[in-house]
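Re: weekly structure request thread

Next one in the queue (372 aa):
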Amino acid sequence: MRFNISSAELLKCLTDISKAVPAKSPIPILENLLFVLKGEKLEITASDSELTLRTLVEVEQSGEDGGMAVPARHMTELLKSLPDQPIEIATVGDSSFECRWSTGNSTLPYFPAEDFPEIKGVGENAVRFTIGAHTLSKGIVSTVYAAADDEMRPQMNGIFFDLDTASSTLVASDSHKLICYSADGVNIGEKTSFILHKKPAAVLAPLLEREEGDVEVSFDENNAVFHFSETLMICRLVVGKFPRYRDVIPQNNASILRIDRQMLLSTVKRVTVCANKASNVIKLTLGPGTLEMSAQDLGFNIAAYEKLPCEYDGEDLTIGFKSQFLTEILANMNCETVVMKFSDARRAALIIPSEEEEESGKLCGILMPQMV
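Done, posted below.
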């Protein structure tokens, strides 16, 4: 097995898929990258048995086809230390290979490709659909931070894909906050759903940022496969039933606050400095044309207060929120003006971008209040 390739191009491929390489695995072979050469295409695979990433890259072949499992960490560190230049990779005997560049070479061990576990995809009866890469990336980024970390309810630890022919929604919730993102242009022929764990979701989103076309998605009861350009991701799905999220979305919150998002976010961060570290609660007091925000920690005798101009239409209201959750929602909304809709101090608040802003209907957040 022998081929030539740009060191920078190979490093880019390894960087993209190395997130699937476990730092330490009970299956040592998985700490390696699988290289399979077929003609002028090199297929590179990384897997931790739950998440698999595979990509194809063009090479200049000067030897026979073949395969080998190479040490992921050593190979990546070597390429990072090289300036961009052509390199030659070639097997030497039955257990080592050489990486040659203009001024030197390195010898590393490899393991037989046959030792790398077989990666299972989806069955023949898998559901298949396409979605725009930009839409999928935006949907994941907009929701994944709201996913839970709950061993007792694993179905809450990912993004729920609620897919339909007319409209589709990506949802994540940790029971304190819930985020919904409406996904346009999902080409699917029937109503269906699956739950994508937040770990592969967080790996997938940045890979899609530079993609312009569609992503081909297929899934069955166990796995999901995402295929775009020369990259393939296979991951284990979360088993379980996601709660009926539409039932908790407020429909009749009549008190409406309209305020600059960045100003509100900055104020929350400042006031939070003096919030009780255990409860992390800040208090919002709403009246005609004003929002007063405050927090205190009696144990340390500290407090903060700030008054903000705003548009508020509704009854006078005092309500508390965990500042961390409110900060996360505001920071992940890409809008100038945010709208918060309230019912009373005990019921969830609805948070959405201003109706006047482009794509405002795509995203909504729901935040449960806290006692103050």
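The helical segments are 7-17, 72-80, 133-143, 198-208, 261-272, 323-331. The two ends are 68 Å apart (CA to CA).
Next request, please.
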